[in-house]
Write the structure tokens for this entry.
Amino acid sequence: MLSWFGIARLGLVQMSLGAIVVLTTATMNRVMVVELAMPAILPGLLVSLYYGTQFLRPRFGHGADQGGRRTPWILGGVALLAAGAISAALSVGLMERAAWMGIAAAVPSFLLIGLGIGSAGTNLLALLSTRVSAARQAPAGSLVWIMMIFGLAATGITAGLLLDPYTHTRLVVVTLGVCAVALCLSVVGIWGQERGEKRVIEKKQGDFRGVVRALWTDRRVRIFTIFVFASMLAYNLQDLILEPFAGHVFGLSVGESTKLGGMHHAGALAGMVTVLFAGTFLARWVTVSLRVWVVGGCLLSGVSLGGLAYGGLHASTWPIAANVFVLGLANGAFAVAAIGAMMGLAREGGDGSEGLRMGLFGAAQAIAFGLGSFAGTAMVDIMRLLTSMDALAYGSVFAFEGFVFLVAAALALRLTSPTAGAEARPALMPGE
């Protein structure tokens, strides 16, 4: 089993993934829309290509299961991601000279980004699931996600300093530098992590689809996959509507709404740190099981979203900042606990299918993320057409999001409830 130092090393890989992705989803997004005056739907469609490739996550995990080693899939994925990011930066520069040629070049670039993040991300979590002890899975998930957030923030700040004054050449050079650092950190993070691990790989009978169908007959896998989809859909429905809600309903300025978004991220980080602290420093005195973090986080998220729906109707007196911080706190604690639960269930079968299981869960998560961003904005637009009250329009979406979180909590309770007879299993993770 990995020590905390080994877990932190794997966190370097997750940090590297976040560092590269933020350049494509944030920096290049802004350049296309602002500097190049492209329609906002263009980067939206390009990012949707990335999400579209996430259907292949089970295939990536299954391939590593069959080969018995995850390191090549992880490093190969980071290399693909880097190649896609560099190609995307070059295509953004090409858009200024010939828009259609640049867009055509960006399409395969974003496909590479999706393939790289799918291969590396799936097998990184699968490796964590097999190499981290059951007691450390929730705090380990917290640690690697905190490191990813650090990578996002550090890259955003550093790239922001290096990109002013902006030129396309600067964008390409900065992207090359970030990718080079990310590749080096990934090698440092993964090298030797599988050494000494004894794995017995059993070739599954039948084709890939047959293996997936057989896995889907496992009740716990099926329920947990649906839980991941529902909870992550709810998690991301508010992503693109929170700041517009603050402006339309509470009258906040751009700067004030941006700070409000920062409060949500700060709350999420606090929730992750809380899970990490409880799973390490407090573990010797009190043990908080994953079911508490997962179900409790979903319930508190649902209540917080209900608060936003109610608060919009009482905007003059509602403590919106505190409400958003609590929402972030619940989201962060739930999210990393769900990652811990994924790792526990991924290795539960004990049949060498950890990658396939993690790929199935990861695909559900990524698809829910992509759908959530689109659905949240579409629902608000529809509701604003149906009602003249912005508070009611946004509030109905938040209320629906809260309801989905409650459904997710119910699914998690079904998963943790013991079944009758020989099928009775442990809770969300072995040893609970």
In short: Residues 99-131 form the longest helix (33 residues). The chain has two domains: 1-189, 206-418. The CA atoms of residues 260 and 352 lie 44 Å apart.
